[in-house]
Amino acid sequence: MRFAILVNEGPYQHEAADSAYHFAAAALAQGHEVSRVFFYMDGVHNANRLQEPQQDDRNIVRRWSELAEAHGTDLVVCVAAALRRGVKDEILGAGFRISGLGQLVEVGIQADRLVTFGD
Amino acid sequence: MRFAILVNEGPYQHEAADSAYHFAAAALAQGHEVSRVFFYMDGVHNANRLQEPQQDDRNIVRRWSELAEAHGTDLVVCVAAALRRGVKDEILGAGFRISGLGQLVEVGIQADRLVTFGD
Amino acid sequence: MSDEANWEDAGAVKRFMFVNRKAPHGTIYALEALEVVLISAAFDQDVSLAFLDDGVHQLRQGQDAKALGMKNFAPTFRALDDYDIDKLYVEAESLAQRGLSAEELIVPVQVVDRERMSALMAEQDVVMSF
Amino acid sequence: MSDEANWEDAGAVKRFMFVNRKAPHGTIYALEALEVVLISAAFDQDVSLAFLDDGVHQLRQGQDAKALGMKNFAPTFRALDDYDIDKLYVEAESLAQRGLSAEELIVPVQVVDRERMSALMAEQDVVMSF
Amino acid sequence: MLHTVNKSPLQTRDLDSCLEHLAGERLLLIEDGVYAAVAAGEASAKLRGPAAEGRVYALGPDLEARGIGHDALADGVEVVDYAGFVQLVAEHGPHQAWL
Amino acid sequence: MLHTVNKSPLQTRDLDSCLEHLAGERLLLIEDGVYAAVAAGEASAKLRGPAAEGRVYALGPDLEARGIGHDALADGVEVVDYAGFVQLVAEHGPHQAWL
């Protein structure tokens, strides 16, 4: 089955970014496809590669990058939300790309299920 | 009277960052001192100078920088919260500095009032 | 728009519901939900909007966020009709709890009771909740 | 620490209360509140912690966030005593609503009723709410 | 002490909890908290006691942003602007935010 | 349809609203939403009907993180892991998050 995921909150502040990641990883482990994760609103902060969490904490941006690398999942950051918050190409993590909101609606049409995580 | 302000949420997502700014501006306009604004948790995203809101929207990082420039208010970004979220010196707005949580407790002691904005 | 080309190839038409449950201005959720609705118009899907709980506050007339330096996005609801998005469902119980009537809203809506709202939700292919 | 030097010059001792009203893990508020409490120990103020509403969940025993890759910060409450922070007030009504008793908590606390909690809040010089 | 509530009264329990601890202190409604002050809304009844004693305020710019006219407010609720917010904190002591 | 609630039932009205619209559908409690499933808590009574029909689930890793043992759960609530979450969405159709 083909899943798409919408993430509306940033890393560390809310559990939403963690829940979205764990859901994606579990879907992939079951052999499903996760064709796209769309980062919207504060969700765009997930893509900031400058993140340096403490040693004993998870690295949220790296986790997403590794997931994209391993499974080809398309990590799309909403351009308008990102510009407003200062998430630019120069600080974007590996595997993320910046694009328009159309990418969210498109994947909502194409995927079998859209799963939303937010606050 | 000497005020200090604590901001726990980032720009644009929650009104907290706006409320904190308008409170600070109003206190200064009345002749009070706003000795420090401390940005904690997602509040650290206020300091990202890469923010580029749309033309008809407010520029939250610039607004803080101008306030600091005009009134000498100390804009302190929590180092641990900022590292974790990727808010580094290289993307820090004018007038902001990164320092430890001790700066929050210190100003809580020194100021006459500590006013908190968050979610 | 390349997005459009893609889905048109697939030929799919899905029932999309945008569920609005948050008040405007306190968070950006309401504003950003409307942005997605506007974009969705370009994809010729079967789009509807649901307003319940504090989401009904989004449709209050007379909102003016100028003093806060924030956007007045409520008038944009009036533009939805131009995009052929005309299924706006508002829950009667949510209005009543907040002392609002449909006449006080910024656009014409269909007021439905809770049971009907639940049924409408259950009919969708995609639900985006904000 | 230069921070300490500054306030010691001023000679001030203030009553600081940290008000914890949010559940742990769903948001970072609870964890970050505890970080400020630990730092505040270095400033020799009159520090107390209040737990009410969902904040009482922070003190549940047996929390284990390993499977989520998140920090287990609850054991840190046990360290507060080493920093001479021993005023932990927990609201009885909040415990009862959640089916919790003081014996189930990770550290010894003073259980107070709502009226006493209100009085304690009103006695403070600085309230930090999380 | 000045208490603030910034959440809608029909979405979270923050207003309820604040009122349960308000005792004789003052309450300022800000952000989405201002919806509580709408007379026609269910939540305004909860404010009646403290409002009658002149201890409940609502932030004007937040009311305007949400399309709530002053004539729609519950009896006894006083509207203040940001300058008034600053004065309330200055005069009535520590700020407690019910986040 | 699979509904999820991620907020504590004593902090927000999201669970209440979800249950008012649940009809015959399924509910998965995640994040702070799992507190609703604690039998000794006030909110668990609200789940009784759908739980008795086997339509209420709680996410295991979120229970563990919060120190809630499976023996503390209300009758009829089924614990699932993330794989189970994926299966629920796959089998029961569109996801609706009560954010």
UniProtKB/TrEMBL annotation, chains A, B:
Pfam family, one: DsrE
InterPro entries linked to this entry: DsrEFH-like, Sulphur_relay_DsrE/F-like, Sulphur_relay_TusD/DsrE
Keyword vocabulary terms for this entry: Cytoplasm, Transferase
Domain of life: Bacteria
Predominant cellular place of this UniProt entry's protein: cytoplasm
Subcellular location: Cytoplasm
NCBIfam families: PRK00207.1 (NF001237), sulf_tusD_dsrE (TIGR03012)
Family designation: Belongs to the DsrE/TusD family.
Protein name, per record: Sulfurtransferase complex subunit TusD
UniProt lineage: Bacteria, Pseudomonadati, Pseudomonadota, Gammaproteobacteria, Chromatiales
TrEMBL record, chains E, F:
Domain of life, per lineage: Bacteria
Cited Gene3D superfamilies: DsrEFH-like
Alphabetized SUPFAM superfamilies for the sequence: DsrEFH-like
One Pfam family matching this protein: DsrH
PANTHER family: PROTEIN TUSB
The protein, known as: Sulfurtransferase complex subunit TusB
Record organism: Halorhodospira neutriphila
